[in-house]
Amino acid sequence: MNPYVLLAGAIVSELIGTTSLKLSDGFSNPLPSLGVVAGYGLAFYLVSVTLEDLPIGVVYGTWAALGIVGVAGIGVLVFDEPLDSAGIIGILFILIGVYWVNIVSKMSVH
Hints:
The protein has four helices and no strands. The chain has about 110 residues and is mainly alpha-helical. The protein has one domain. Helix 1 runs antiparallel to helix 2 and helix 3 runs antiparallel to helix 4. The chain is flat and about 45 Å long. The model has no long low-confidence stretch (mean pLDDT about 95).
């Protein structure tokens, strides 16, 4: 399977785990608490499989960066958290960095 598809799955799984963490209210709600364990467990498994084909710097950098952007978006859309112009600029820099490492750089497998 394409390692970038697996990496995308890891990112989505992490977003589910992180959103569930917010909803778990300190692990006092059982269903979101299970979502934390399942989401993070699947995310780490998929990252481990992705590392068989892609360099660790590319995998972890992309996973962390897109996780940050995704969680920020979920915060705005689901939890009504504020996003100002400085936050938007920061997110754009993160996305540029992911593009640069994965497309422009020779770090990645092309």
